[in-house]
Amino acid sequence: MPHRALFVDRPSLLLTETVERGMPSVGVNTRALDALCRIDPKLFRLMLVGNEEALAFERVPEARHARACTQIANALRRAHIPITADYTCAFSLAAPLARRKDSVFRLPNVGALKAARLEYDVELSTSWIVSDRAEAMLAGARAGVRTALVRSPRNERRYDITPDLVADDLGSAIRFLHKLQAVLSR
């Protein structure tokens, strides 16, 4: 039986670029992480997607980035929410040489969504992608995944895509999706 996935844009929603003691770093958006820890794993398989620009463009050290990602994974593990897959992409054709390559996982490409369908028997038409980035909305629309746009001052790039849902934050989006699934499963 196919599964529903919740594709969450980790770099965009869960990570924040900061400066610690004059050094670039990356931190965890604790409010978004708390919201994600409330997801019902019986309703959705959690999949992480997104363009890891901080790594691709070498704005933060890999060790600091890894530490923040481990923090996220540990918090989700404590909440008994497994990360089914991590399709985030740390490459770009515009990046410095070490990270310069194309990837089907780089949004707005649909490789991450299609890989989830093949690897984890995900039904894309009943799955959702949640992000504050236009690239994710475009990828979702291209792959037939429902789209939830989180309002952000970073909603700078626009495509001719109207998201299925617009939410003030990740928590609001997750609450709506839980209510929607409860109605649909009656």
Explain how this protein is built.
The structure is a single chain. With 186 residues, the protein is α/β, with parallel strands linked by helices. The chain has helices at 10-14, 30-36, 53-56, 62-78, 111-120, 134-143, 170-184, and strands spanning 5-9, 15-20, 23-28, 45-49, 83-86, 128-131, 146-150, 165-167. α2 runs parallel beside α7. The mean pLDDT is 91.
Task: Describe how the helices and strands are arranged.
Blueprint: E1 5-9, H1 10-14, E2 15-20, E3 23-28, H2 30-36, E4 45-49, H3 53-56, H4 62-78, E5 83-86, H5 111-120, E6 128-131, H6 134-143, E7 146-150, E8 165-167, H7 170-184
Parallel strand pairs: 1-4, 1-6, 4-5, 6-7, 7-8
Antiparallel strand pairs: 2-3
Features:
single chain; 186 residues; alpha/beta; Rossmann fold; six-stranded parallel beta sheet; two-stranded antiparallel sheet; 7 helices; 8 strands; 20% strand; globular
How would you sum up this structure in a few lines?
With 186 residues, the protein is an alpha/beta fold. 37% of the residues lie in helices and 20% in strands.
- From the 3D structure, determine the CATH topology: Rossmann fold
CATH superfamily, please? HAD superfamily/HAD-like
Mean pLDDT, to the nearest integer, reads 91
Cα Rg: 16 Å
Could you give the count of β-strands?
8
Low-confidence stretches: none
Distance between the termini: 18 Å
Side-by-side strand order of the widest sheet:
5-4-1-6-7-8
How many distinct folded domains? 1
Binned strand content = 15-25%
Helix share bin: 25-40%
Q: What form results from the Cα inertia axes?
A: globular
| CATH class category label | Alpha Beta
Order of helix and strand elements from N to C terminus:
EHEEHEHHEHEHEEH
Question: Judging by the overall fold, what is the CATH architecture?
Answer: 3-Layer(aba) Sandwich
Q: How can the largest sheet be summarized?
A: 6 strands, parallel
| Secondary-structure content class | alpha/beta
Count of alpha/pi helices:
7
